[in-house]
Design brief:
This protein has a single domain, classed as Fumarate Reductase Cytochrome B subunit (Up-down Bundle), CATH 1.20.950. Helices cover 64% and strands 2% of the residues. It has eleven helices and two strands, in the order αααβααααααβαα.
Length: 341
């Protein structure tokens, strides 16, 4: 009798387990729905696709729980875009350093005369340096925001890092509108001087005399300065517009537009920073006497004859040469200064 009872009890347990498994399987089939899909999977798929739901919180895009394009933006910002900025800036610095070591600065072909020619007035110099300082501050703080986690965080405590980046972001946002105003004023002040002329093509063909062969004549702005001016105006406008969108996210734009603005902002800033390195080099170490004009407002007559002879003719200091007359050999630069020994 005891054996028979144990046998019946064992069969009941086995049948109970089987029935439980079947009921569990049936519940899973019922939960999956008639098409065999898990409705919770559909829910999260819709969430990732940006399908909006209901939210009691008032505001723009509050019904969108997860914005999937943000992950794409994050990967692009921290991946290819960061690498492009580092390679472009590092490569430009390396190229300019190598060029300086191999060629050295462009020296004056003739001794200084002691005669100073007014080149930039006080308002022009003030605008130039205000624009330059605001841009340098924006570049440094922008690079800090882009590379801060990798470059700064390993060297400082988290509290210090947070304070540094917080102030950097504040200065970046505060300096941006100032740069916009400077860009507008600079465009208005130097627009006429930077219109293209036929003589500019001669400057480009000879690379501004940087590789010898004589310095081509130029007006108040040579072709290289004009190229930098229009690059700054074009990409400066792009950086300014996208920066205002990021600085004041109150224009009714959705997050996709904010992310696109950020990517364009970084790309435009990269072009300007790369061009600025070349401009700084040519205007300081690369050309003897170039920095004096923007610091003191006046340049030596020998420097003006060598680099901007057409400008001297326009303001009446030099006599205009007949069309087609070549520049005398005595006024041609001897090329780059090479240290002896």
């Amino acid at each position: 009798m005891a054996a028979t009872g144990c046998h019946r009890f064992g069969r009941l347990v086995r049948w109970g387990v089987l029935v439980g498994v079947l009921l569990m399987y049936a519940s899973l089939l019922w939960a999956a729905g008639p098409d065999g899909a898990n409705p919770r999977s559909d829910l999260w798929r819709q969430v990732r696709e940006g399908v909006s739901g209901y939210s009691a919180v008032a505001g723009q895009e509050t019904g969108e729980l997860i914005q999937a394009s943000g992950e794409f933006w994050r990967r692009l910002r921290n991946g290819p875009l960061s690498w492009a900025v580092g390679l472009a800036l590092g490569g430009t610095l390396a190229a300019l350093s190598l060029f300086y070591l191999l060629k050295g600065p462009i020296r004056l072909a003739k001794p200084r005369t002691g005669v100073l020619v007014p080149r930039w007035n006080a308002a022009e110099r003030f605008l130039h340096w205000l624009t330059a300082l605001s841009f340098i501050l924006l570049a440094l703080t922008g690079l800090g925001l882009l590379y801060g986690r990798k470059a700064l965080l390993p060297w400082m405590q988290q509290e210090t890092f947070a304070a540094v980046l917080g102030w950097g972001k504040f200065l970046h946002n505060l300096t941006g509108p100032l740069f916009v105003l400077c860009l507008l004023a600079m465009t208005w002040m130097w627009f006429k001087d930077n219109l293209w002329r036929k003589s500019d093509w001669r400057w480009f063909k000879s690379f501004g005399g940087m590789f010898g062969g004589g310095h081509p004549p130029a007006g108040r702005m040579n072709a290289g300065e004009k190229a930098w001016f229009w690059l700054l105006v074009t990409f400066g406008t792009l950086v300014s517009l996208t920066g205002l969108v990021l600085d004041f996210p109150l224009f009714g734009l959705e997050r996709e537009w904010m992310q696109l603005s950020h990517l364009l902002h970084v790309a435009g800033a990269l072009v300007i920073m790369t061009g600025a390195l070349g401009h700084i080099y040519i205007g300081s170490l690369g050309t003897e006497g170039a920095l004096e004009g923007m610091v003191r407002g006046r340049v030596d007559l020998s420097w003006a004859r060598q680099h901007h002879r057409l400008w001297l003719e326009e303001i009446g200091i030099e006599k205009k040469r007949p069309k087609g007359e070549a520049t005398p050999e005595t006024e041609r630069p001897t090329g780059f200064f090479r240290p002896q020994g």
